[in-house]
Write a structure and sequence with these properties.
Layout: E1 42-48, E2 57-63, E3 66-72, H1 85-88, H2 91-95, E4 104-109, E5 112-117, H3 120-137, E6 143-147, H4 152-162, E7 166-168, H5 170-187, E8 204-208, H6 218-229, E9 233-237, E10 250-252, H7 259-272, H8 278-284, E11 285-286, H9 288-295, H10 300-307, H11 311-324, E12 328-330, H12 342-355, H13 389-392, H14 404-409, E13 420-424, H15 428-431, H16 436-445, E14 448-453, E15 465-468, E16 488-490, H17 505-515, H18 528-537, H19 542-548, E17 550-552, E18 576-577, H20 581-585, E19 605-610, H21 624-629, E20 634-637, H22 639-645, E21 652-657, E22 666-670, E23 678-682, E24 710-711, E25 718-719, E26 724-729
Parallel strand pairs: 6-7, 6-13, 8-9, 8-12, 9-10, 11-18, 13-14, 14-15, 19-23, 20-22
Antiparallel strand pairs: 1-2, 2-3, 4-5, 4-15, 16-17, 19-26, 21-22, 21-26, 24-25
Helix pairs in contact: 3-17, 4-17, 5-12, 7-10, 7-11, 7-12, 10-11
The chain binds ligand MGD (2 copies), iron/sulfur cluster and molybdenum atom (MO).
Length: 732
């Protein structure tokens, strides 16, 4: 049977090998009759939250072996003992009644393709035989991995052991890629995760489209709050009156897409009024004369016409930044793929920080440290004939990680390079705007598509095989060893048995490895053996970590630069590069250039989007606890626009983009907090997969309205904010 022309599948009732959650009493209140929580036998075990990628460490409590609650670990530098709303609701990811509990295989029944539950042996043998076939016919390297989250490492290891080394993640080309590349070009290193921002010591913080508070990266929200309590000046640049805008001295309600104009004008003031840190700039940077010449025409009066921000405000905010320098942080943002010139905007932010002397200084950017944790001894990986770089075909010279869209393009057409995909913990149709037709094309051509997920996300529609992973609460993963202020390790371990037939990622990877003759790369029975070995190399043990969850170590390197000692940055010149010869040599502007954004056509509005505190993208919309907190998103509409369309808060509308694509119905929230020319919505809603019984069909999906993406030529990022939508009233 040739199933290569894959029909896009949704789960039908019969195929849904989804969960019957043995009730934890918490949700149903009735699994073992009414009983007060906390009266049974309590046990606890450490975890690392997987509800977003800040990776807070916590403790899972069970009662009589059943999940009860998860709370923060007080020794953890990422959370300081407090999980955010979403992390607290993490227990809901276990309880989700739609969880995948059996492998699913695409089969043909009565001329129709459907998913059928199969046992693990059948699923794994199928995958291994397809992988072998690809290797024989094309080469081992023709399999690519898309992934997000810690568990992806097990599949990276599997594929590298096999001879495939192509990897891409939406968290690069659809998220923080441009800033990492821009900071590397400027300082020789990126910002990293958790972001190396020293907000707790900042005297002035500038947030440019970074809505910390709604964007709920835990430790970062806490340090921002502390800075505000300590009297730091907050400046927020956002077309929307965001949560931090409400706490700001200056809210600059910028015309969307004009941020580079504002940044150039700020540089114009700071250089023109000689407010920059002369000693720091002379000692550490190159290119000031070129930069000074470059920004001379970009006066606040010029920027006013672009950004709508009055010259006085531009000057006053620039002076506030300089007055607090070097404890001034122009925050680099995180999701920065907006208009396709994002590496240049991020470069402008990097340069502005350099002028204020904030890199390597208290209140700016500090140097992080992680634990020197030896790798478990394993044989060397075979040489992979190609890596994901082949997908760029020289297009994106500064891409420092795989570019999702490029890997997809390299899986399409007669000369397609990739023949197989592993997709781990990433819901490509919702995270890659405007990609559906390409995903379908690729799925038609590929010889193997494996999806590893915990629920039936839309991406399973392209799979041959769907593998049910157990949730983070039910498994071991690698130790968390993130760079931070204090080097620390944290442990994730199973708090209870995996639900149904779901399995940990490490187990799935090992089983596949064994079927591919790669046993030597998986010489453990249980992944805890790897962790125990690693921990013993640094004076701890699994037994200790199972008790304490987080172990903090002493720093060995300085947190800040020494003003009196020379320092070599990791750039070609060894200095902070205000003028980038690297960009120039590759044919790009060596200093940031402003391009005015397109204006919305009449009766259309710019579609902007962001985070909601109760959810992480679309990965939590079906989590029953978080669904209860926020079941659907709403579209923010300014009263002027609302009046024009005769809308009131709570009305249902649909959004239609310039190509005529119509969204699901979504409620209106009429508010002055958004500009009249823009609409705002939280990303992650409007699921279409019927197997997600809570989230399916609820709210609107921003991704499906994004038919115009602007690709960043420097690193391949996907600019998503060039889309315009109009309103269509929903008849009741
Ligand atoms: N339109 C639009 N697109 C965006 C964004 C946006 O705001 N709007 N934001 C962008 C940003 S900033 C990012 S970082 C990316 C993120 O986008 P993705 O990389 O897609 O990340 P998530 O949404 O976290 O991944 C969701 C998938 O992981 C699955 N999952 C959850 N837990 C587990 C687990 O324990 N194991 C496994 N195997 N799977 C699990 C979920 O069920 C879901 O299918 O999206 C980007 N794309
Ligand atoms: N609760 C929650 N927190 C999260 C996440 C989550 O899913 N849920 N995801 C995490 C991840 S992976 C990331 S990358 C971060 C993303 O978080 P951030 O980097 O903070 O934010 P974005 O979602 O890109 O930005 C949204 C903000 O940009 C504003 N904006 C829109 N257009 C423009 C413009 O042209 N100029 C300016 N100056 N502002 C504009 C919007 O009004 C909105 O306030 O959040 C992280 N934290
Ligand atoms: S910030 Fe919240 S959701 Fe993210 S890891 Fe921490 S507790 Fe979990
Ligand atoms: Mo992100």
């Amino acid at each position: 049977m040739n199933l290569n022309r894959r029909q896009f599948l949704k789960l039908s009732g019969s195929a849904a090998a989804t969960a019957t959650v043995a009730g934890s009493g918490l949700l149903t209140g009735c699994s073992s009759g009414p009983r007060r929580p906390g009266t049974g036998e309590i046990a606890s075990s450490p975890t690392i939250c997987d509800i977003c990628f800040w990776k807070c460490a916590g403790t899972v409590y069970t009662e009589n072996g059943k999940p009860w609650k998860v709370v923060g670990n007080p020794d953890d530098v990422h959370s300081n003992g407090r999980l955010c709303t979403r992390g607290t609701g993490g227990i809901g990811s276990y309880m989700d009644r739609d969880r995948l509990t059996k492998p699913l295989m695409r089969v043909e029944r009565n001329g129709k393709q459907v998913f059928e539950p199969v046992d693990w042996n059948q699923a794994l043998n199928f995958i291994a035989s397809r992988m072998r076939k690809i290797a024989e016919e094309q080469g081992e390297d023709r399999i690519a991995l898309f992934s997000h989250g810690a568990g992806g490492a097990h599949f990276k290891h599997l594929l590298k052991s096999f001879g495939a080394d192509s990897y891409a993640a939406p968290s690069f080309a659809q998220c923080r890629g441009p800033r990492e590349v821009a900071f590397k070009l400027t300082y020789g290193e990126g910002v990293g995760s958790p972001d190396r921002t020293d907000m707790e010591n900042s005297r002035c913080i500038v947030l440019i489209g970074s809505h910390i508070g709604e964007n709920l990266h835990n430790g970062q929200v806490q340090t921002l709050t502390r800075a505000i309590e300590n009297g730091a000046t907050l400046i927020t640049v956002d077309p929307r009156f965001s949560v931090p805008a409400g706490k700001s001295k200056h809210w600059l309600a910028i015309e969307p897409g004009t941020d580079i104009a504002l940044l150039l004008a700020w540089m114009n003031v700071i250089i023109g009024e000689e407010l920059y840190d002369k000693d720091y700039v002379n000692k550490n940077t190159t290119g000031l004369p070129q930069l000074a010449r470059h920004v001379r025409p970009f006066t606040p009066e010029w920027a006013w016409l672009q950004t709508g921000i009055e010259p006085d405000k531009i000057r006053a905010s620039a002076r506030d930044m300089a007055a607090a320098a070097p404890a001034t942080l122009i925050h680099p943002g995180r999701h920065v793929t907006w208009y396709g010139d994002d590496t240049q905007r991020s470069r402008a932010i990097a340069i502005l920080n350099a002028l204020l002397g904030s890199w390597g200084r208290p209140g700016g950017f500090y140097y992080q440290e992680k634990v020197k944790l030896p790798k478990f001894p394993l044989p060397k990986y075979p040489h992979a004939k190609t890596t994901e770089k082949i997908a760029n075909k020289g297009k994106f010279p500064f891409a420092s990680s795989g570019v999702t869209n490029a890997v997809i393009d390299a899986s399409i057409g007669e000369d397609a390079h990739y023949k197989g995909w592993f997709i781990y913990g990433t819901n490509l149709p919702m995270s890659l705007p405007g990609i559906t037709h390409k995903l379908r094309q690729a799925a038609d051509q590929l010889d193997l598509v494996v999806v590893v997920d915990i629920v039936p996300a839309e991406v399973i529609g392209y799979a041959d095989i769907v593998l049910p992973e157990c949730s983070y609460l039910e498994r071991y993963d690698d130790l968390r060893n993130s760079p931070e202020r204090i080097p620390s390790l944290a442990l994730r371990m199973p708090a209870f048995e995996p639900l149904g037939d779901s399995k940990p990622g490490w187990w799935i990877a090992k089983q596949l490895g064994e079927r591919l003759g790669l046993e030597k790369y998986f010489p453990w029975n249980d992944y805890s053996e790897v962790l125990d070995w690693q921990l013993k190399q640094v004076g701890s043990s699994l037994e200790e970590m199972q008790r304490i969850g987080v172990k903090n170590f002493h720093r060995k390197t300085p947190e800040y630069l020494d003003d009196d000692a020379p320092f070599r940055f990791g750039t070609p010149s060894g200095k902070i590069e205000l003028y980038s010869q690297q960009l120039k040599d590759a044919g790009f502007a060596p200093m940031p250039v402003y391009t005015p954004p397109q204006k919305p056509p009449e009766d259309y509005y710019r579609l902007i989007y962001g985070r909601a505190p109760a959810h992480t993208f679309g990965r939590t919309s079906n989590n029953p606890l978080l669904f209860e907190l926020m079941p659907e998103n709403a579209v923010w509409v300014n009263p002027i626009a609302a009046q024009r369309w005769g809308l009131n808060s709570g009305d249902y509308i649909r959004l239609k983009n310039t190509e005529g694509t119509m969204s699901n119905r979504v409620r209106v929230r009429v508010t002055e907090r958004i500009r009249p020319d823009s609409l705002f919505m939280a990303h992650g809603f409007g699921h279409t997969e019927r197997g997600l019984r809570l989230a399916s069909g609820v709210g609107a999906n921003d991704a499906e309205l994004m038919s115009h993406v602007k690709i960043d030529p420097i690193m391949g990022g996907t600019g998503m904010r060039s889309n315009f939508v109009t309103l269509v009233k929903e008849e009741v």
